[in-house]
Structure formats: structure tokens, C-alpha cells
Amino acid sequence: MKRPKLSVVVPCYNEEACLELLHGRISAAAHAAVGEDYEIVLINDGSRDASWKVMQRLSEADPRLVAINLSRNHGHQLALTAGLDLCSGEEILIIDADLQDPPELLTDMRAAMKSQGADVVYAVRRKRDGETIFKKLTAAFFYRMLDRITDTPIPLDTGDFRLMTRRALDAFLSLPEQARFIRGMVAWVGFKQVPFPYDRHERHAGESKYPLGKMIRFALDAITGFSTAPLRFASHVGLLLTGASALLVLYILIGWLFGAAIPGWTSLMLVVVVLGAVQMFVLGMIGEYLGRLYVESKRRPLYLVADVAGPVRGHASLGYRFEDSGEVSVSPQTVRSETGQ
Ligand code: UDP
Ligand code: MG
Q1: How far is ligand 1, taken at its centre, from the CA of residue 80, in Å?
Q2: CATH superfamily assigned to domain 6-226
């Protein structure tokens, strides 16, 4: 199989209003960068609007468009994983469907990749238009906190918008985990990675698909995936409380020696409540890790493809893809366990 020079991979969830313009702008940018030798891989992540219909229609008119319909909403990071798994290009551009990240930067990103001999050019947000103060503040805090507690140098203020070489992508695809924080996983892979500053635009249409609940889960995936610092937190608090209880013992001893009355209820309640809260918090934190361990241990495929439109050339090595003939291509993990290796 001859690989196209470039794959542009786009996860889409309820983006019907963006798709046509997105397709036009990506096509123009890809054409300007590599001529005819590219593919656009759109992943429909179980959209509830007409996104899949629009994708099918676009793919009929454009042989370079590959549209992939997942069996349900698997979430942004898994939808993107599916696209990366099924694309076949020598270079891979990851971009969001809402045109917050301008596809026209492709030419400059390729130039940066070439001139600096990099395997990954990651786009760093200088400005974020049209996003709430809350989102900007929490994002700024989160990336800085993550940077402090992890050993993997994950670049600050960076999304998934990036250009990668095939070897960096293959290295990324060798990571089998379910809880995927893709920007961190790509950083973990290594090779030469260089920043590319840009201004983030407003969404073209629709609204953010990341409500607070999803944002928190995403943040927890990032923290548990890249740091065990929260687990050490329990021993630090334990040490602190040991010190505090030594002081308390001293206080009681002195009171007893000098015959002073020591007030009971308030101090007792305080100790009970503080200890209870700390223990619950620590338990919850251990639970976050334990739950993820449990999910990982099931070794389920990362995504299921229901339908495709257009020529899919990559292999579903991390998920299942139901072929048109009704056959299934089985992930290597499953094959290994079936043959007892
Ligand atoms: N997305 C997805 N599945 C989801 C949620 C989001 O494929 O469950 C896609 C979405 O269509 C977009 C990208 O992920 O292309 C980023 O989402 P969004 O723009 O809503 O996030 P934000 O930019 O607000 O952080
Ligand atoms: Mg967006």
C-alpha cells in the first residue's frame, strides 16, 4: 500500500453545521501543502444530528474523504484514537471539527517540522477567542498543576491540534490504554517535539461539546494517567496528622498534670470530622485509580466502527472494524490472547 503524504484526522460530535466549511478549508489547505496526495479522515462519534449524513454526502463527491461512523458516542479522545488508528498518511494533522484551529496553518507547521527536523509540531494557544473566563482559568490552572505533578513534560496550553510523522504516530498507537489523554501520550512518546504558537479562534457554529462533567473526567484521566502523586498524598497527610496528634497528646498530658479541665465535645467532634473527611477523600482518590485499573483489566477494544464511507486504508489495531462483507478484523490483543501467547 502506498501511503498518502498527509492524513488530516478530525473527530466530530454533532458538528453538522461545521462539516461543509471544514471540508472545504481542509481540502484547500491540504492541496496547498501536498497537492493531491492526501486523505481527510472524519470520525462521526455517535452524533445525534445529521453529521453522518453530511459526511456520506461529502464522501460521495470527494474520493479523498474517508468517513468513519462509530457505533456510538465513544468520547473525543477515543474518537480521535479511531481516526489515528485508521488513517494511513506519512504525516498526520490532528484538528478539531469546529474550526477553532485554522487548517491554513498546515503549511507553516510543515515548514517548522522540516526546518527543525521534528517529529511532532504541537500548536500552543497564545489566545483563546470566544471561550469563557471560567474555561480559560481552569485550563490555565490545570495544565500548570499537571506539569508539577507529572514526570512527563506535557506542554502547557496545548490541545490536540498538531502535526506528527508516521513514526511518532506508530509509537503513539503502541500505547494500548483505555483512559487516553492524547496530548500527554504523544508527549510521552518523545522524539523531537517543537511548539508552534497560534491564536485560537471562536467556534464556527454550535457549542462546546465539553460540559463541566466531561472536563472533570478528562482532567482526572490526565492526572491518573500521568502521575501517582495523589496516591502519595495519603502518606503526607498521615504524617501531618501524626504530628498533630502528638501535640494533642502533649496538651492532654499537661492538662492532666495540672488538673485543668479539658473541654470534651468540641475537640472530639473536630477530630472525628477532620479524620472522617480526610479518610473519605483519600479513599476516593484511591478509588479513581482502582476504577481505572478495573476498566483497563477488561481489555475491551477502544472503539467500534459501524460503517465507513470512502477508502479506509489503516488497520483497526486498537478497535474493531466491521467490514462490509460482515467479517470482523480482530485487534492484535485479542488474537494474542486467543492463541494463548
Ligand atoms: N468531540 C467528539 N466527541 C465528543 C465530544 C467532542 O468527537 O464526545 C469532538 C468535537 O466534535 C470537536 C472536538 O472533539 O471536533 C473538540 O470538542 P469541542 O470543540 O466541543 O471542545 P472545546 O474546543 O470546547 O474544548
Ligand atoms: Mg472546540
Answers
A1: 10
A2: Spore Coat Polysaccharide Biosynthesis Protein SpsA; Chain A (3.90.550.10)
